[in-house]
Specification:
It is a single chain. This protein is an alpha/beta fold. The protein folds into three domains: about 10-180; about 215-365, Alpha-Beta Plaits; about 390-635, EAL domain (TIM Barrel). The chain has helices at about 5-10, 15-45, 50-70, 75-95, 105-115, 120-140, 155-205, 215-230, 245-255, 255-270, 300-310, 340-355, 370-390, 425-435, 440-460, 480-490, 505-510, 515-525, 540-545, 555-560, 565-580, 595-605, 620-640, and strands at about 235-245, 280-285, 285-290, 315, 320, 325-335, 360-365, 390-400, 405-420, 420-425, 465-470, 500-505, 530-535, 550-555, 585-590, 605-610, 615-620. The strands form three sheets. Strands 8-9-11-12-13-14-15-16 form an eight-stranded mixed barrel, surrounded by five helices. A five-stranded mixed sheet has the order 2-3-1-6-7, with helices on both faces. The protein has a two-stranded antiparallel ribbon with strand order 4-5. A hairpin with a 2-residue loop joins strand 4 (about 315) and strand 5. Helix 2 packs antiparallel against helix 3 (about 50-70). The termini are far apart. The structure holds ligand C2E and calcium ion (CA) (2 copies). The site of ligand C2E has 23 residues, from strand 9, helix 14, helix 15 and strand 13.
């Protein structure tokens, strides 16, 4: 037995399909009526009244079918059509030439019709009836009741046969046309379905902003890479990359610009790795990079170098040139571990190590980093109480005017001696304070202390010395710095002109209007702005003109080699000339020897500080140092006089 169609579908065909079926039935009914009319006409010509009457009756019944087709259920119309056509064809055939009659050519057309628009039951039933009728005709003939007699061939016979063939061809035409359309529709639907499946997969496994794999997909791939690497005894590198100043850019330039930056970073990163490698975005500004398929670990360093270089060029965002740096932590399996969790933790540690070492750099994991996390936690909690317990001190390193040789001010540098942890340098605890959010309180405290000491220098008759205070970029996040400066100056009565703020280049890279205005307001109070560690950051110097900057402090790594390397000598000289062109004062830090001093003097550098004169000393000692220095000058002046 043939399987029946889903009754649910058959009971209620969709409106579009129903309309199509009705249209087809109307066409078929019209064709059938026309066919019976033609046959009726031929019978009229041949004066066969019985056939004529029969034909007209059938045509009339089909006409009724046409009307039914407007409102009645489809099945009734189909049933009427099939019953009328079947009866008509069979009776006309039987009383004309019996088994020899051409009318039976119409049987396949009826089967086609039943198959297209009726149920499977109808099709089977109809086939059975047809065969039974043919058998009946045979029996009637054999028993002499109704003879099947072939008439001599006549044109009417050819006409009828051709007409029937044309009707069948027409049905087949309709059927194949509908089938073709149905297949096409199915194909389109299938494609849409596949598309939406792919989209769902993308949503589940990809980061919607950059199109990169998300964390889940990346971890899945890492799992497979590790599995394969184990079998083939090859290493796999896992890297975390975190953008250093993304938050500043995002907060100041807005999220759409931040998004655009992430997309550009993503595509640059992707260009650095090979096809089998993975670059994934795992959180806000953090990327996970997986490298497999290499024989030696040197290949990892090559990729790392490529990544650092790729981010060195600034990004064009919304018409602005924005620089971004990244800190990269790398761990290698199986050397550093084989488990996903351990590897991720290692890469994360190494990344934070890179951040601690001044950002814009990379670190390979080494086992000692595990200890340093604990140590950092200890530093963090000790630092919290250090502020309250007065363990922190501000020391002062004098700054000299290189032309007159006089002390013109000092840089305030934090010192911490913890009873539990011993002496800890700012290079170690400032990054911890930045990460724990303590930097704002710490920064405000230093500012207040430095202003108070500088005011004391004035009241003790040391003259108008400036005090330079280091400011972390994080202190700019909520405009804390402006409030802290106003408070410190207000509370200590120090004139703004005696205060210098030392900022890092990376802060200005974000190049925002907001920051520009903030620095302008601070400058309006007489406070001066110095760019610290100048030369280590970026090649884009446009910001120097844009921001209210007064001083450049040449990084001590260049000053250190000013006598040893022609390259660094050229660099120092270029920085000094550039600064002068922009009306900026130049401070050289890290001056350790007389030869360095002479070189800098020769280049026209205005100020200097360094071990050549003095390290940073406690506040009281600084006062003594300045007094002695001034006394020496007074003696010198007296001698001259
Ligand atoms: P920096 O701002 O570049 O400070 C200059 C550093 O160079 C100081 O290190 C100073 O002691 C050292 N130095 C001075 N003269 C010489 C020299 O002739 N040779 C050599 N090799 N080094 C010299 P220090 O005090 O360890 O400070 C390290 C860094 O910690 C500072 O670098 C600064 O970035 C940060 N820092 C210090 N105090 C503060 C602070 O109050 N707030 C913030 N945010 N950062 C601070
Ligand atoms: Ca400094
Ligand atoms: Ca510096």
């Amino acid at each position: 037995m043939l399987p029946d169609r889903d009754p649910g579908i058959e009971a209620r065909p969709p409106a579009k399909l129903l309309a199509l079926h009705r249209k087809r039935l109307r066409q078929i009914l019209l064709i059938a009526i026309a066919a019976f009319a033609v046959v009726a006409l031929m019978n009229l010509l041949r004066e066969r009244t019985l056939f004529l009457a029969l034909n007209l009756t059938l045509a009339a019944l089909l006409w009724l079918g046409l009307r039914w087709n407007r409102h009645r259920p489809l099945e009734q119309v189909v049933a009427l059509l099939v019953v009328v056509a079947m009866t008509g064809v069979s009776v006309l055939g039987a009383i004309d030439q019996g088994l020899f009659d051409e009318a039976f050519i119409a049987y396949p057309a009826l089967l086609l019709l039943a198959g297209m628009y009726g149920s499977r039951h109808l099709l089977v039933f109809l086939t059975g009836i047809m065969i039974a009728f043919l058998v009946l005709l045979l029996l009637l003939d054999q028993y002499g009741i109704l003879h099947s007699v072939a008439l001599a061939p006549a044109p009417t016979r050819v006409i009828t046969m051709s007409m029937l063939l044309m009707i069948i061809a027409f049905f087949v035409w309709l059927l194949t046309d509908d089938l073709r359309h149905a297949v096409q529709d199915l194909e389109t639907e299938k494609r849409a379905l596949l598309d939406s499946h792919a989209r769902i997969e993308v949503l589940a496994q990809r980061d919607s902003l950059t199109g990169l794999p998300n964390r889940a997909l990346a971890l899945d791939r890492l799992d497979r890479m590790l599995e394969m690497a184990r079998r083939e005894r090859r290493p796999v590198a896992v890297m975390f990359l975190d953008l250093d100043n993304f938050k500043t850019i995002n907060d100041s330039l807005g999220h759409p610009v931040g998004d655009a930056l992430l997309r550009q970073v993503a595509s640059r990163l992707q260009a650095c790795v090979r096809e089998g490698d993975t670059v994934a975005r795992v959180s806000g500004d953090e990327f996970l990079i997986l490298l497999g398929d290499f024989e030696h670990e040197e290949a990892i360093s090559a990729v790392v170098a490529q990544i650092m270089q790729a981010l060195q060029h600034s990004f064009m965002l919304d018409g602005l040139e924005v620089g971004v740096t990244a800190s990269l932590g790398i761990t290698v399996a199986p050397r550093d571990g084989n488990e996903i969790d351990a590897l991720l933790k290692n890469a994360d540690l190494a990344m934070y190590r890179a951040k601690d070492s001044g950002r814009a750099t990379f670190r390979f994991f080494d086992p000692s980093m595990n200890e340093s996390v604990l140590e950092q936690m200890r530093i963090g909690s000790a630092l919290r109480s250090a502020l309250a317990r007065d363990e922190l001190q501000v020391h002062y390193q004098p700054e000299f005017d290189l032309r007159s040789g006089r002390i013109v001010g000092a840089e305030a540098l934090l010192r911490w001696h913890s009873p539990e942890l011993g002496t800890i340098g700012p290079d170690r605890f400032v990054p911890v304070a930045e990460r724990s959010g303590l930097i704002n309180a710490l920064g405000a405290w230093v500012l207040r202390q430095a202003c108070a000491d500088a005011q004391r220098w004035r009241s003790e008759g040391l003259g108008e010395l400036t005090v330079a205070v280091n400011v972390s970029p994080l202190q700019f996040h909520r405009d804390d710095i402006e409030r802290d400066v106003v408070r410190a100056l207000g509370a200590t009565q120090l004139p703004g002109a005696n205060l210098v703020l030392e900022l890092t280049e990376s802060l200005l890279m974000a190049d925002t209007l907001h920051l520009e205005q903030l620095l302008q307001r601070v400058s309006a109070a007489g406070v001066r702005i110095a760019i610290d560690d100048f030369g280590t950051g970026y090649s884009n110097l446009g910001y120097l003109r844009r921001f209210a900057v007064h001083r450049l402090k040449i990084d001590r790594s260049f000053v250190k080699r000013v006598c040893a390397s022609a390259h660094d000598e050229g660099l120092v000289r270029a920085i000094i000339e550039l600064g002068h062109c922009l009306d900026l004062q130049i401070v050289a830090e890290g001056v350790e020897e007389a030869a360095m001093l002479h070189k800098l003097q020769g280049f026209g550098c205005e100020y200097g500080q360094g071990l050549y004169w003095s390290p940073a000393v406690p506040a009281d000692q600084f006062i003594t140092l300045v007094r002695e220095h001034q006394a020496m000058f007074a003696r010198g002046a007296a001698n001259v006089a």
